[in-house]
Amino acid sequence: MRAHLLTLCLSIVAMLAIVPDARSQASWPTRPIRLILSSPPGGAVDLIARLIQVPLQEGLGQTLVIEARTGSGGIIAWDAVAKAGDGHTVGMVGTALAALPALHKNLPFDTLRDLAPIALLVRSPVVIAVGPAAPFRSLPELIAAAKARPGSLSYGHTGMAQGPHIVGEAFKLRAGVDIVQVPYRGAGPAMLAAAGGEVPIVWSVLGGMVPFIQSGKLRPLALAGGERLSSFPDVPTVEEQGYPGFRMEEWFGIVGPASMPADGVRRLNGEINRALGLPAVSERLRGLAFRIVPMSPEQFRSFIESETKTTRAVIEAAKITVE
After folding, report:
1. Can you give the residue range of the structural domain that contains 187?
2. Domain count across the chain
3. Residue 317 in domain
4. What is the pLDDT of residues 23-79, one digit of tens each?
5. In this predicted model, what pLDDT tens digit does every residue of 253-282 receive, in sequence order?
6. Among the listed residues 186, 185, 193, 233, the one whose alpha carbon sits nearest the alpha carbon of residue 212
7. Which of 100, 205, 229, 235 is such that its CA lies 20 to 30 A from the CA of 110?
8. Structure confidence at residue 189 as a pLDDT band (50, 70, 90)
9. What's the rounded Cα separation, in Å, for the pair 291 and 309?
């Protein structure tokens, strides 16, 4: 009898110990959440944010306010996140975050120490495409023209040290060509420039390029992923066209300030992964060639650390600098 009573008491104590935890989980968020973007409307970052906005609002019971803070290769946006002290400010980051430590000696924040990784959203191959007036029908044709007239061709990209810029410069090294890089303020402006003939070539994430391809405003020549995509089976990979091992992807994820409450990080990670699994969201993302890659906060931190090392190697080899 005493043993039974002891067991019962221990069970009750254990249950009571769990209650504050559950309440803590339910206590966040207590106000609207601000999601800071480093890119202007019209590109992949904005598209992904809009897709998850409503599901997150429904799951969290709070408004998700999307705010764009462009400029300085993402530093302005991500510094605002790192210094946010309200526990309700997060930001969307990508490959450019991994590039910052190799490009800047005096960043106003530490990319690994001052930001709390929350969730990886998607990965997507970066694509090289040309406008309708460009004569190139394949990657070898473009490379042949570039080698015949060094410095005569130019390519647009989403901004200095952004993922497409890093991929473009890495490919120039690999192919041994001199193509002038032209930075734009986001994917939308870069793709519009190529579609309108301002530059003949553009490197960008395939997801944001889909409408341009479908309307005939851009013609994809190759994607820097490991294999062809079922949604675009006629677009060959860079590897297939003479450059084995050339595989590079852009990625996007959500981070908060290092001071963000642990329960907030966990709650948001769960709601993000839930939102990504919704058919309306997942089908739309996959249709735009995004690959959904759910991760825990710990897995996402390891991923960012690995990407930071890999990106540094590319930047140093390609001698990429920013003013």
Report:
1. 125-241
2. 2
3. no
4. 344 589 999 999 999 988 877 788 899 999 999 999 999 999 999 998 888 999 999
5. 999 999 999 999 999 999 999 999 999 999
6. 193
7. 205
8. very high
9. 22
